[in-house]
Automatic annotation (TrEMBL):
Any one of the GO CC terms: cytoplasm
GO molecular function, one term: phosphatase activity
Cited InterPro entries: HAD-like_sf, HAD-SF_hydro_IIA, HAD-SF_hydro_IIA_hyp3, HAD_sf
Organism: Bradyrhizobium diazoefficiens
Descriptive protein name: TIGR01459 family HAD-type hydrolase
PANTHER family: 4-NITROPHENYLPHOSPHATASE-RELATED (PTHR19288), OS08G0542600 PROTEIN (PTHR19288:SF90)
Length: 287
């Protein structure tokens, strides 16, 4: 992985993947915005696959991969766009499965109930629970993490571990930003609570994605031949850098307003904005 202090703006994915065997692509903000898919991005990933590359979608969605796939299909993203999906929901489900008999307080909207579907999970109110699984806010259209301060204070008093099934703080929904489970988890951590994060930027989701890519390619994957794609400095860029792989940063996503005039930034400003800059930037993914 190369560290730079200047920005490289790419016109297309094709100029970046000549020596890349595997693409680990974010979904929300790169492939769709929650309401509609981005056809050029889907075409770019499909074209890369048709030329022998492997595409693993990695997402902080607090749902298992099959649920994510159903959402992608509804948004018009063809199965042929990717080889496999790894979600933070999958990893959270593994945690629940490894703690049989322990009582779980589930914090999140009803649409995320697949987080424990098919598992021998015992749910309980906060006062009786052994740990918390947070998939999001009950009503992310109107609430913020502050609405949960009282609940988190009670959880901290009981010394409950909070398992965060989506480390994202915010995500796009159409042209709006809504709060995610990561916002509550960060509040709980600020209050002194113990948090286990599944999903980007943490290693387990990358390790799982690399294992699946290795199965598709039939050999262990060299990280120097992997490209991550994402739209979040905090999760996608940081996660790729800490895992030791290059990153293509898509600027149309959650940071869109911050990235106006990026091409005029001096090196100091680049470092302030990104830390270590990505391998390349592109407004939106296209072949």
């Amino acid at each position: 992985m190369r560290i730079m202090t200047t920005l490289h703006f790419a016109e297309s994915l094709r100029e970046l993947v000549g020596d890349v065997d595997v693409v680990l692509s974010d979904i929300w903000g790169v492939v769709h915005n929650g309401l509609e898919s981005f056809p050029e991005a889907c075409e770019a990933l499909h074209t890369y696959r048709s030329r022998g590359g492997t595409v693993i979608l990695i997402t902080n969605a607090p749902r298992p991969a099959d649920s994510v796939q159903r959402q992608l299909r509804k948004l018009g993203v063809a199965d042929e766009t990717y080889d496999a999906i790894v979600s933070s929901g999958d990893l959270t489900r593994l945690y629940v499965a490894e703690h049989p008999g322990r009582k779980m307080f589930w914090l999140g909207p009803e649409r995320d109930n697949s987080i424990y579907r098919g598992l021998d999970a015992v749910t309980a109110p906060l006062e009786e629970a052994d740990y918390i699984v947070c998939t999001g806010l009950y009503d992310d259209e109107t609430e913020t993490a502050e609405d949960y301060r009282g609940m988190m204070l009670k959880a901290r008093e009981r010394k409950l571990t909070l398992v965060c099934a989506n480390p994202d703080i915010v995500v796009e929904r159409g042209d709006r930003l809504i709060y995610c489970a990561g916002a509550i988890a960060e509040l709980y951590r600020e209050l002194g609570g113990e948090v286990i994060f599944y999903g980007k930027p943490h290693r387990p989701i990358y390790e799982r994605a690399m294992a699946l890519a290795g199965e598709r390619q039939g050999h262990q994957i060299d990280r120097r031949r992997v490209l991550a794609i994402g739209d979040s400095v905090r999760t996608d860029l940081t996660g790729a850098r800490e895992f030791g792989i290059d990153c293509l940063f898509v600027t149309r996503g959650i940071h869109a307003e911050e990235f106006e005039g990026l091409d005029q930034l001096d090196p100091a400003s680049v470092m302030e904005l990104f830390g270590h800059p990505p391998k390349a930037l592109m407004r939106e993914l296209k072949w």
